[in-house]
Structure formats: structure tokens, C-alpha cells
Amino acid sequence: MAKKTPQPKPFGNLVRFGVSVPKDLIQRFDVWLDEKDLGNRSEAIRHLILERLTKENWTVGREPQGATLVLVLEDKSETQRRIHDVRRDLGALVLSALQTRLSDREQVLVLVLRGSGVLLRQHAEHILGLKGVLYGQLVMAGNASAS
Description:
Alpha-Beta Plaits, 4 helices
């Protein structure tokens, strides 16, 4: 009987391609992968490509994006009124919200948002400039419609 030649595993939607990289760069990349326990080169490259495309979408605002806006607020009625007004203005951009007390003078508010990168950045800049907002940061989560 003849020996069967092993067949390559199907990759579905995956595409294989070759990349030429200087030896010292790939060695540094492999060390980085090991240090961060990021798996293999393919997984890391997929992650880096997705990260770069996400940043690009945030820059040009083409597709819906997911994001979180984390705010530390003064625990004052005036600040709470401003934040209430902002949340009302954001409307459907807000998917979820969590607000809780940090201390007797501060609260934290976390908003989960979905919308164009440009629009989310504009709203975040406005909110971060409000009186009573002590600290805040907008963190992009990625393309909200990617599968």
C-alpha cells in the first residue's frame, strides 16, 4: 500500500503570505513574543494589524467603533447635573454606564460607547473639559462591527 501524503489543514478565511524581515528584527520580535506570552508570530501579527486598522478607523472615523470613557468626577450636585445633561445628549452612543463613589468627594463614571471615532473623540474632548471632571480618558476598544 502506498503511503498517504498528509494534506494541509484547511484555513477557512485565513490567507497565508510571506514577509521579509531583517534577522535582528525578527529575533527581537520573537523575544518580545516570549516575554509577553503572546503566542506565535501569526497571532501577534494578526493582533498588530487589527490594532493598526482600529487606530486608522479612529483617525478617519469611517466605521462604528467601540470605546470606554472613564471619568473621575467631583461629587457635587452641579457636576452631577452637567454629567446628566451630557449623558442625555450622547443618547444612543451610550451602550452602558457605571457610576459609583470613590470617596466622600469623588465618583467614577465609566461609559461604554459606540459610534464613529471622530464623533466619540469630539464628545470625549467636550466632557473632559467640563468643570468638575477631575480626570478622564477615552480608550478605543476597536471596530464595533468587526466579526
